[in-house]
Amino acid sequence: MATLVGMLIYSAFEYLLGEAPTLSEFAGHHLLPAMLIGLAVCVTLSIILHAKIISPVMQIFKHLYQIGSGQLSPLSLDSRVSEIRTVVEGVNLLVTRLKGDPKDGSLGKALDDLVKLRGDLEQVTASSNRSADTFVPVMQDLRRLEGDLLMVMQSGKYGS
Fold first, then answer.
1. 24 burial class (0-12, 13-18, 19+ CB within 10 angstroms)?
2. Which long-range contacts does 99-106 make (Cβ < 8 Å, 24+ apart)?
3. For residue 57, what are the CA distances in angstroms to 15, 81, 84, 121?
4. CA distance 66 to 55
5. How far apart are CA 144 and CA 128, in angstroms?
6. Which of 1, 4, 109, 110 is least crowded, fewest Cβ atoms below 10 Å from its Cβ?
């Protein structure tokens, strides 16, 4: 849009200075180059925006969803954008506070052990000759236990 406006202003100045371009001159000297430059700027900005902002924000969103499902692991995401770094620090502070018990940290450790146990069971399921359906009840019990531990941690009933 800015390219189109700039092109129209440039054409108006050229017309006022006495050289009224024909339609083919206007298209060849103004319209085509302006459209190509506008397209190049649009593509470049889209690539940069996706790499620097959209992709990190999607990673943060996915990690927050995992935190909501009880997987309290810190987020490691490197970014040169200071606002993204600030959000990552905030997410990691949230994870630390959700895990931490002011007295001894045993609830956070229990949750970490539970997450590790779930990962171990997923590996056993993947490498076992037995049907994955035999492990479904165990995994459901682990998810419920993890949710209960998270609720206890969030409610502040444990240790404080």
1. exposed
2. 99/72, 99/153, 101/153, 101/158, 101/159, 101/160, 102/159, 102/160, 103/159, 103/160, 104/159
3. 47, 11, 8, 30
4. 17
5. 24
6. 1
